[in-house]
């Protein structure tokens, strides 16, 4: 019995040491919030003299999915490179309309809107708000126009952060680039992925090179971000194994003492 406890104690203590050393450098993937899958719609305001009068702004009201807006919607965004307003809709949205709203918060309905529009008819197009502006519940007219978007301001800015060797010359810089890419809206992710970055390479080629060269765990184009040491898990397991070893040692001491004084 005495030899059995000796062997068990030694095995457990040795196991705890080996487990701790083996886990010291192990990496785990950290999940961070990132941009969900979205789909972009564009609009050109061709009647700014009336639609934007008195400091008015433009909102988009959308519905048909799990995350619908409440009237009169949320503000659109502006892309300088394309000289158009845009918005990234949740992936399941089917319908939307543009609404004339107050230029400052809170967002208030300022009396004009487009007809109900469908996402399916907007693909590869922008909505040209041609007017004339209509009031009292009437619909301000416009139509969809086919276009090919230029590289957006956001994509150009992102590309500029990793367009030289010096800007992506460390694992930290490469990790930051992949994290930044993963947090771009879906439209910008797709546009950068296909972008010609020189040397016959695309943006996705460059990201994959950085990922492979620096052995980065983060999947590209996902909500997963970063590598951190798995200190919590390994420490917990090591403590458990060490505790078992101490328990065995205490049991051995108790039996030895009983035999000595029994």
Shape: elongated
CATH class annotation of the largest domain = Mainly Beta
Strand segment tally: 15
Number of helices: 7
- C-alpha Rg, in Å? 30 Å
Oligomer, anyone? single chain
Domains, number: 3
Percent helix range? 25-40%
What would you say the CATH architecture of the largest domain is? Sandwich
How many angstroms separate the termini?
Answer: 16 Å
Q: Kindly state the mean pLDDT as a whole number?
A: 80
Helix/strand structural class: alpha+beta
* SSE arrangement, N to C: HEEHEEEEEEEEEEHHHEEHEH
Q: Let me know the largest β-sheet.
A: 6 strands, mixed
Note poorly predicted spans. 1-33, 223-262
The CATH topology of the largest domain corresponds to: Immunoglobulin-like
Taken as a percent bin, the fraction of beta residues is 25-35%
How does this structure look, described?
With 262 residues, the protein is an alpha+beta fold. The protein has three domains: 2-26 and 230-261; 38-146, Immunoglobulin-like; 151-229. It has helices spanning 2-23, 48-51, 153-160, 171-182, 186-194, 203-213, 231-261, and strands spanning 27-31, 38-45, 57-63, 74-75, 77-79, 84-90, 95-101, 109-114, 117-118, 125-129, 139-140, 142-146, 196-198, 201-202, 224-229. The strands form four sheets. Strands 3, 4, 7, 8, 9 and 11 form a six-stranded mixed beta sheet that branches. A five-stranded mixed beta sheet has the order 5-6-2-10-12, with no helix packed on it. Strands 1-15 form a two-stranded antiparallel sheet. Strand 7 (95-101) and strand 8 (109-114) form a beta hairpin. Helix 1 (2-23) packs antiparallel against helix 7 (231-261) and helix 3 packs across helix 5. The longest helix is centred in the last third of the chain and has 31 residues, at 231-261.
